[in-house]
Amino acid sequence: MDMSIIVPISGIFALLSAIFLFYSVKKQNPGNEKMQELSSAIRKGSMAFLKSEYKILVIFVIIVTLLLYAASFIEGSQMEWGLSVSFIVGALFSAITGNIGMRTATMSNSRTAEGTKKSLSKGLSIAFSSGAVMGMSVVGLGVLGVFVLYTIFNNTSILFGFGFGASSIALFARVGGGIYTKSADVGADLVGKVEAGIPEDDPRNPAVIADQVGDNVGDVAGMGADLFESYVDSIIATMALAAIAGGFASIENAVMLPLIIAGFGIISSIIGTLLVVFGKGKNLYSVLRNSLFLATFLTALFAGIATWYFIGSLYPFYAMLAGLIAGIIIGLSTEYFTSEKRKPAQDIAKSAKTGPATVIIQGMMTGMISTIVPVLAVVAAMLIAYYFAGFYGVAISAVGMLSILGVSLATDCYGPVADNAQGISEMAGMGKEIRGRTEQLDAVGNTTAAMGKGFAIGSAAITSLALIFTYIVTANFLLPEGETLSLSLGDPYVIAGIFIGAMLPFVFTALTLGAVGKAAYAMVEEVRRQFKELNLLNNDKNKPDYERCIKISTNRALKEMILPSLMAVISPIIVGIVLKPAGLGGLLIGSIASGFLLAVFLANAGGAWDNAKKYIESGNMGGKGSEAHKATVIGDTVGDPMKDTSGPSLNILIKLMSIVSLVFLPLIIALG
Amino acid sequence: MDMSIIVPISGIFALLSAIFLFYSVKKQNPGNEKMQELSSAIRKGSMAFLKSEYKILVIFVIIVTLLLYAASFIEGSQMEWGLSVSFIVGALFSAITGNIGMRTATMSNSRTAEGTKKSLSKGLSIAFSSGAVMGMSVVGLGVLGVFVLYTIFNNTSILFGFGFGASSIALFARVGGGIYTKSADVGADLVGKVEAGIPEDDPRNPAVIADQVGDNVGDVAGMGADLFESYVDSIIATMALAAIAGGFASIENAVMLPLIIAGFGIISSIIGTLLVVFGKGKNLYSVLRNSLFLATFLTALFAGIATWYFIGSLYPFYAMLAGLIAGIIIGLSTEYFTSEKRKPAQDIAKSAKTGPATVIIQGMMTGMISTIVPVLAVVAAMLIAYYFAGFYGVAISAVGMLSILGVSLATDCYGPVADNAQGISEMAGMGKEIRGRTEQLDAVGNTTAAMGKGFAIGSAAITSLALIFTYIVTANFLLPEGETLSLSLGDPYVIAGIFIGAMLPFVFTALTLGAVGKAAYAMVEEVRRQFKELNLLNNDKNKPDYERCIKISTNRALKEMILPSLMAVISPIIVGIVLKPAGLGGLLIGSIASGFLLAVFLANAGGAWDNAKKYIESGNMGGKGSEAHKATVIGDTVGDPMKDTSGPSLNILIKLMSIVSLVFLPLIIALG
Fold this sequence. Notes:
The structure is a homodimer. By secondary structure, chain A is mainly alpha-helical. Chain A has helices at 6-26, 33-71, 82-118, 120-153, 156-196, 208-245, 251-277, 284-311, 315-338, 343-351, 356-369, 372-402, 405-427, 432-478, 492-533, 546-617, 627-671.
């Protein structure tokens, strides 16, 4: 019956919107020759990275597919061959969204810069449309993928494969992209700004294009894949819980509800998007905020009606609302702890009076204290959701948090486009007025990016919780009659799992921090070499070798991403085999708790350091070049890989380990 | 039977040894007038701090005692009035050991300095004897306290009050002492060494005596109280598990076994101590190590025999061995990650080439990676201990780890005495040769202190695990017939508790880091003021006002310790009431997992930064005064409050929250 027709329709609508927005951006004026040249260099670099990355991913995907297929033949494993199919589809869809997002973002940067010539809101409209292409592709392909696979296989546990595929691509995209973007950034800044004293985005700096590429690679492709994963994982977990746990008047309706909520979320997001694309508001920030609020309100309204009509009770709707509100609270808290207009970042700036050591300590404190609100918000959402609708409610609350992803992701992906536009206007020498406008765009982008980061972390935590509950329910479903998995804290295997699980995010963070360090070091060497050998600073005729820098970032990032990524995939399987399903359950909750805390700590400490520096740069505490400024530059350098590489990668780590556990659970039980 | 007669005998023996060693130190030559004057100033400052601290503690103890007593009248609470008695005794005993330790340490510093005039081993003997007074007092009072209270009440749950009393004093001693020592240290260094350019321990620096006092307050009183708590908690947990869980041929024997092992540990520790006190070895480090190894070997031997004789099985002995070995492994791992002779600290020194930001990142990585070995060691010890003897085995393994505390604590407390002796020789201008010798003593002290810190963290983790299992068993014992507390990860209250529990160590760390910052800032202002107003650097006639600095450290430390300490005591009670015993159980495991990881991270990152600086100071990478040196000084300043205040305080946090939960569990169940 058939409100569920909304699902494929909304998915197709989302893709059509994406296509429409893509062409509406494409027909904009791409700017003068110099701008087009720069934009093309950035696009080439970005696509080159994706291509090299996909070469590695294809191998990974083939191996895992074969393993999954082989596992279906192990006697008693209960792993179905369909898992390998849905794994490939998940990986493919995630890769496609990344590809679309990157193509659009790298096409829009020069157009956004050119658009701001006309008006600020024109620039906003282009940059935002470009982000919305990514947002709509993610939700469209997400909903369609899950819907079609479920229609074919009619088995929710097959869908875990889809989540696993999405997670795998997300992991490599986030970790690889994060290493790329920070190594290029640090390399460009350390040698260009600090050593040679030339401005940011100076075209004489050989790493400057790699730096722009990094914004796309990390913040567009990485962020998109991350949220694609959360989006589909939350839907899949809800469907699986409905199918296995039961307790509804119509199980089939309960299974379809998350897809339907997602469908209405898409429609609402499209409406919210139009508000920005065709809007003419002067205050950029409030235009973006209003579109988010409108989409949220409409989604809640539609979801309430659908739940009532479909389930015959508003309880799951209350659960969904809890998730939606928790997401907003976490976003606001992130904004408070990192904004240069608020006390925490300003306190860090003040601590710069006594030098870099106090800046570091103050920033660490800020990051640690900032964990309170997100943790309590997630805990409250979980308890409320559970109260109303059990495990299913917790999963629905994650769906609720992510239902407006179509528009909220657009706000995130708008940031790097604005950043690129700012870079291009600088490099193309577009004059002071235009640069002022792109700077305004960029500044709003930074605020929305900070909120988006908080949102990504919160949704990762609650999605992982939904996956853990799915794990428990699935395990008890799979276990032979009479056996149950209680996952009691009185079981030393569970405790052992919790300890090891809590340790993994620390180790993972150490590895990703180290990876950035090594890649950045290679970049520093290269930029120094070019400055010296080509005499770039004093000889206008010699052109810097941008490609070489891009190649270094690409190769290093891909090389360094392998160890931490494999650790994430393999640890749960090993722990599951050695410490049984009980230890694996402990591992999951331990890693979520510690990974969530570390992710918030790393993101907010890093964000606060960044903005403490900006606070001083805008003329406080002695301004640019003062001793206090130097101290905050050190803080910002420490925070950069924390907030842009390690922190966001932890989101994937915790989701991926949960979904890997779900996929391999039947095998682990069979081996136990 | 009565092998249990060994318990009071060994306790009395320990106290007699302490008295004997105290007088043997006292009769040593206290040095010339100048040295005695300095030593007396340090003693006065230390005792003044203790006195002010005890004034606050007395109020706290009275309030809690009354509350405990009142709680025994709440209907159905099952809290016995004896808890209030054992709470007072626990608090009193902990305070007495702190007092004895401080008196001895502050008496021994000038005598150690004078002793090194004769020979290095003479100096070692005095400093170590002084540490052994503390070690023997701790184990003697610990064993006697538990034994007497158990003999009187014949009820193991009354003993939780003793642990609670010990934990409360430990908390204030660690947090207050930690804030004191680092604020004085940072204040003295930042203004004296960095701004004024005078050497460390220069008598013109007004904070120099406060700095020496801090070593005693933090590293003697704080460390002693911390390990007194672990020691008695592990014994109490074992006794309670034996009494409630049962499953032994003779329950009474199983209850007494931990005390008997502790008794044999004391005898072995006395023998080990004699090896150092009367030894004449040239290599200080190997003398200390040999005494530890001898004590370990003898304890294992005696404990094996006692277990066999008493329980009729060697299984609990294997559990004990697992704990003992895990303790050694954690100590060695700490040594590896922090020693200036090893790769991690040297890598940090090398990263100083690219400035302070890379030093900070490299140090954080080191701290995070260094969690692997301690976590796996504790997990392995727990699983092995459980395999052989269930929950009881896990508790016994904690007892095993701590059984040689009499001698291992002596090695820890020897450090600050050597440090003080070094300071006195510097301030009294004792000449280069003597200073060289005290430096050697001090250097060995630093290594043993690092190992001691790792050991303290590991023992806190495994003791807390023993307490958690005790919590589960006790809860199921107290619950009405038919109800059980399964603490399943499928219970959202448990998950909520785990999240909040994992968050608390982050918040606690932020609070203690902030406290040091504020106290240090007040000290910096005061030292600057005195330098300026009294013109101390250029006018020999004006004497610095040492007392004022001591007063500032004291007042600030005591003021700042209150908030984090109350948080530690109150959080478990609130969570227990709101989220029921299930949520409280989650809180405990969450806090242990995240607290243990953070403690290792903070201690090892801090230690590695410290020794990276020392590595450069000993002539590498450009040596003292180079840019690389300055970068590592920043790392060291960041690491100081991490390793000496926040990290060690976390040990107490996790134990205290567990013991508070055990004490108030009957009330929480009654209110549920």
